[in-house]
Amino acid sequence: MKALIETIVTPLVDHPTEIQVEEREEDDKVVYHLSVHPEDVGKVIGKNGRIAKAIRTVVYAAGSDSEKRIYLDIM
């Protein structure tokens, strides 16, 4: 899942080397924390959060067969 998130975000940012995805697994969920360069935050979120919503939709769909719920936080 980390590779999927990095693959989606890399073409959107100007500083692809500063993409960091951290995974935290809890009892009933898995939380992914996405960090990018401060200049690229707006590009990842998009106008009115459209790009962030699209990224989350793809990640949630990819993890739909998992028993645990998946969350994506953009820092």
Automatic annotation (TrEMBL):
Annotated Pfam families: KH_KhpA-B
GO-annotated biological processes: cell wall organization; peptidoglycan biosynthetic process; regulation of cell shape
Principal localisation: cytoplasm
Keyword DNA damage included in the entry's annotation: no
Membrane spanning stretches: none
Keyword Secreted assigned: no
Keyword vocabulary terms for this entry: Cell shape, Cell wall biogenesis/degradation, Chaperone, Cytoplasm, RNA-binding
Location within or outside the cell: Cytoplasm
CDD domains hit by this protein: KH-II_YlqC-like (cd22533)
GO molecular function, one term: RNA binding
InterPro entries, A to Z: KH_dom-like_a/b, KH_sf_prok-type, KhpA
Cellular component GO terms, alphabetical: cytoplasm
Top-level taxon of the source organism: Bacteria
Function text: A probable RNA chaperone. Forms a complex with KhpB which binds to cellular RNA and controls its expression. Plays a role in peptidoglycan (PG) homeostasis and cell length regulation.
Classification via HAMAP family: KhpA
Self-association and partners: Forms a complex with KhpB.
Family to which this protein belongs: Belongs to the KhpA RNA-binding protein family.
Protein's name in the database: RNA-binding protein KhpA
Organism: Halobacillus salinus
